[in-house]
Amino acid sequence: MVEVTGETTDEDRADALFHALSDRTRRDIVRRVLAGEHSVSVLAAKYDMSFAAVQKHVAVLEKAGLLTKRRQGREQLASGDVAAVRSVASMLAELEQVWRGRIARIDDLFASESVINTTPSEE
After folding, report:
1. What is the pLDDT of residue 90?
2. pLDDT score, position 1
3. CA 20 to 30 Å from 35, out of 1, 27, 107, 113?
4. Torsions phi, psi of 42, nearest 5?
5. DSSP string covering the chain, please?
6. With 70 as the cut, is the pLDDT of residue 59 above it?
7. 7 band by pLDDT with thresholds 50, 70 and 90
8. pLDDT the model gives residue 3
9. Alpha-carbon 96 to chain mean position
10. Mean pLDDT, to the nearest integer, of 38-55?
11. What mean pLDDT value characterizes the chain?
């Protein structure tokens, strides 16, 4: 991640969030931890991969801020961060508005071109 004067930019945060959510296993982990706190070892048992691989997925999600971990004895417990998921939804809504505006402008161009092409020309 690129840092600007010691702080992460909004674009860097978006990159981290979307990178974290780009993987199917990580999206599934997020769904599970949003439903309730899970130990990393219980999460690991749900997937056909090593415990270390699941730990790496959890670390990516934690770095992106999509989940938090806490220790309870020997267990690491993971919880989803609803606010982070809402921020992803907010980013997607902003992108949707940009694209809706672009599509509306394209529609307007087609409509105005259609009017120009259907207007009888003077001879």
Report:
1. 86
2. 44
3. 1
4. -70, -40
5. --EETTEE-HHHHHHHHHHHHTSHHHHHHHHHHHHS-EEHHHHHHTSSS-HHHHHHHHHHHHHHTSEEEEEETTEEEEEE-HHHHHHHHHHHHHHHHHHHHHHHHHHHHHHHHHHHHHSPPP-
6. yes
7. low
8. 44
9. 14
10. 96
11. 87
Q: How many residues does the chain have?
A: 123
Q: And the tokens for 15?
A: 């990159």
How far separated are the first and last CA of the chain, in Å rounded? 64
Give the C-alpha separation, 82 to 88, whole Å: 10
Q: What is the pLDDT of residue 66?
A: 94
Q: CB burial class (10 A; 0-12, 13-18, 19+) of residue 103?
A: exposed
Rg over CA atoms, the chain: 23
Q: Which residues contact 35 (CB under 8 A, 6 or more apart)?
A: 80
With vertex at residue 106, the alpha carbon angle to CA 100 and CA 111, rounded to the nearest 5 degrees, is 125
On the CB side of 56, how many CA atoms lie within 13 Å of its CA?
Answer: 7
Residue with tokens 């934690």: 62
Tokens 């130990």 label which residue?
Answer: 39
Q: Read off the amino acid at residue 115.
A: V
